[in-house]
Design a protein that fits this description.
The chain has 16 helices and 7 strands. Helix 4 links the parallel strand 3 and strand 4. Helix 11 runs antiparallel to helix 16.
Length: 325
C-alpha cells in the first residue's frame, strides 16, 4: 500500500485489530492530504444490512476533485453469497478510480472473495496476523517510541502480562502511560503503579520470575494464578528447573549455544536461560528437584496445594539468596 501506484482493491485481513486499523488509517491519510476526503470516502459495515447494489454503485462512483475514491468495507468475514458474489464480479473489472479496502478478521484463502482480491496484485492482501505472544513486548517497546517515550523490555513484558495481547488495547495503555509518566522512560514500576490488571495471569511470568530469582515477582505472579492450577504450575516449574540444570551444565562446558538443540526447542523459547542459570548453583537446582518429590504429593493430594506450592517457591529462592549472600 506504500507504492505510488495504487491497486483497485486491498484485502486487509487478520486478527490484529491495531494492524487493521493502521492500514485503513494510512489509506485515509493519503486521501485526506488532497483536502477532498469528505467527498471521496465511503465507509460501510457489511455485518449490518447493506444493500449490495448501493455498495457496487459506490464502488463505481467517480472521485470528486482528486485521483481516487476510497470505499472501505468493514466486517467482511462471513458475507452472505448474495453480497460476496457481486463483489467477486466487481473485482473482475474494478473501477480504475476507486480503491476498495475489504477488511476482515478472518477470511479463508479458498473463498472466492479472497481469491478475487489476491488476483489484483502481489500486494493486494495485507496480512494483519497477530504477533506471537513472545513477540509482543518488542512491539510494545516500539509503541512507546511512537508516543515519544522509551520503554525497556521488563516494562513491556509487565504491560502485556497485565493488559493482555490485544494490540489496540496495548497501544491505548502505552499512550496513557506516556501521558502520565513525567520522565522520558516508562519503567516496570510505572506499569505496576498505573496499569490495572485486566488479563488473566499466565504461568510464563511466574516461571521467568523463579528462573530470575525474583522473589517478589514470583510470589505476586503465583498469587494471581487461576484456582485449581497448582498441578499445572508444579509441572511447568519442574520442567523449567530441569531446563536450567541443562543450561547450567552446558554453560560450564562453554556450550550454551547448543541449548536449544539439546532441549529440542526454538531459540526464542530459551533466550534467557543461560543468563538465568548463572544465577544458580548446580546444587541449588538439584536441591529444588529433590524437594519437588514431596511437593508433588502435597499439590496432588492436599487441600493446601497452593500453600505447598508457595512454600516450595519460597524455599527455592530463599536458599539461593542465603547462599549468595
Amino acid at each position: 500500500m506504500a507504492d505510488n501506484q495504487l491497486l483497485p482493491g486491498y484485502l486487509i485481513v487478520g486478527a490484529d485489530e491495531l494492524k487493521r486499523s493502521t492500514a485503513v488509517d494510512r489509506m485515509k491519510a493519503r486521501l485526506e492530504k488532497t483536502g477532498m476526503a469528505d467527498f471521496n470516502i465511503d465507509e460501510r459495515d457489511l455485518s449490518k444490512d447493506a444493500p449490495v447494489d448501493d455498495v457496487i454503485a459506490s464502488l463505481n462512483t467517480l472521485p470528486m476533485g482528486t485521483d481516487f475514491r476510497l470505499v472501505i468495507l468493514l466486517n467482511c468475514d462471513r458475507l452472505p453469497k448474495a453480497v460476496s458474489e457481486p463483489l467477486v464480479d466487481y473485482f473482475k473489472n474494478p473501477s480504475p478510480t476507486t480503491v476498495c479496502l475489504v477488511v476482515a478478521e478472518k477470511l479463508a484463502k479458498n473463498t472466492r472473495l479472497y481469491k478475487a482480491m489476491a488476483k489484483l496484485g502481489a500486494k493486494a492482501v495485507v496480512d494483519c496476523a497477530p504477533k506471537k505472544a513472545w513477540e509482543l513486548p518488542r512491539q510494545v517497546v516500539s509503541m512507546a517510541g511512537a508516543h515519544g517515550k522509551t520503554m525497556d523490555m521488563e516494562a513491556a513484558e509487565e504491560l502485556v502480562s497485565r493488559a493482555g495481547e490485544n494490540t489496540r488495547l496495548l497501544d491505548n495503555e502505552v499512550k496513557r502511560l506516556a501521558q502520565q509518566v513525567a520522565g522520558a522512560v516508562i519503567t516496570r514500576e510505572d506499569v505496576e503503579r498505573l496499569v490495572v490488571r485486566t488479563a488473566e495471569a499466565k504461568p510464563w511470568p511466574l516461571l521467568d520470575a523463579v528462573s530470575a530469582r525474583d522473589m517478589r515477582r514470583a510470589l505476586e505472579n503465583l498469587r494471581l494464578q487461576p484456582d485449581k492450577s497448582e498441578v499445572l504450575l508444579y509441572t511447568l516449574l519442574v520442567g523449567r528447573i530441569r531446563q536450567l540444570v541443562v543450561a547450567k551444565a552446558l554453560d560450564v562446558r562453554g556450550q550454551s549455544g547448543e541449548l536449544a538443540k539439546t532441549l529440542g526447542v526454538q531459540q526464542w523459547q530459551i533466550k534467557n536461560h543461560a543468563a538465568w542459570a548463572r544465577r544458580w548453583k548446580m546444587s541449588e537446582l538439584t536441591d529444588a528437584l529433590r524437594s519437588a518429590v514431596d511437593v508433588e504429593l502435597a499439590v496432588k493430594g492436599s487441600r493446601d496445594s497452593r500453600l505447598a506450592l508457595q512454600l516450595w517457591v519460597i524455599g527455592m529462592l530463599t536458599r539461593v539468596e542465603r547462599r549468595a549472600s
